[in-house]
Amino acid sequence: MSVFLLQASSNACGVTAHLARHIEDALTRETIRVDLCTLSSQTIHPCTNCGFCRTHRACVFDREDDKASAILDAMRACQLLILVAPIYFYALPAQCKALVDRSQRYWHAQRTSKTRKPSLVLLHAGRKKGDKLFDGAILTLRYFLDLLSRTILATCVRRGLETREDLLADADYLHGIDEMMRHLAISLKNTGTADEKNADYAAFFAEQKKWQLTQDTYAVCRNLSQMSSKGVSRWQEKDKLSP
Length: 243
Prior knowledge:
The protein is an alpha/beta fold. It has one domain: Rossmann fold. It contains 9 helices and 7 strands, in the order βαβααβααβαβαααββ. It has helices at residues 15-29, 52-56, 68-77, 94-101, 104-109, 135-147, 164-169, 171-189, 194-210; strands at 2-7, 33-38, 80-86, 115-124, 150-158, 227-228, 231-233. Strands 1, 2, 3, 4, 5, 6 and 7 form a 7-stranded mixed β-sheet that branches. Helix 8 (171-189) runs antiparallel to helix 9 (194-210).
C-alpha cells in the first residue's frame, strides 16, 4: 500500500513541513508505507516553453540533477497521493508551480488513462480572510493532477496558520488529521468489494466533516460508487470552480 506524500513548500522547517511529518507519522502508525518528498530539497528546472517535449515526448531538462520527471512519475504510480502546500499570494509556491509547469510533456504525449487514482490535497494559509483564497490553487491542482491520471477526492484547507506555533496550537485540527489518516488507512488496507471500499471511504469523509476540516472544502467526495481497485473512473464535472 503506497502513499506518496508531497511536501510542496520551499520552506523545509515551516508549517507545511511540520504538517507533512505529522501526516507521515499518523500513517506509519497504521502500518502504511509513506514516501515523503520535500520539494525544497529537489532540483526542478523551470519550464522554458522550448517545445522539446512536443516532438520528443520527453523534457530537455531530464538529467541526473533534475528531479521533476522522477517526482511526476512517482505521483502517477502511487496508490494514493497526498499533497500538502501553503498558499502564497493566493497561489501555490514557486517550487510547486515549477513542478506543475514541467508536466507539459504529459500533455503533448497524451499519457493519460481512462481511470483516475485518488488524491488528497491539504492547503493552508496564514491569512484568515479572503473568499477566494484557495480557488486558484485548487483549479491549478485539479488540471495538473488530471494530466497525471489522478483525481482529487478531497481538498482540506485551513486558515490562520502563519507559523509552526499556530499549527501546534490548533489541537483540534491536528487531532482531526490523525482521525482522517486512521480512516484513510482502513480504506487503503481494504481488499474487499467495491461496496466495502465505498463504506470505508464514506467513514473517512464523515470523520473529515466531524472535525470541521471541510469548512472551505470544494471537492469532498466524487463518484464513490465508481471507486475500485483499479482507480477512479474519469468523470466530467461542472461546478463553481470551472473556468
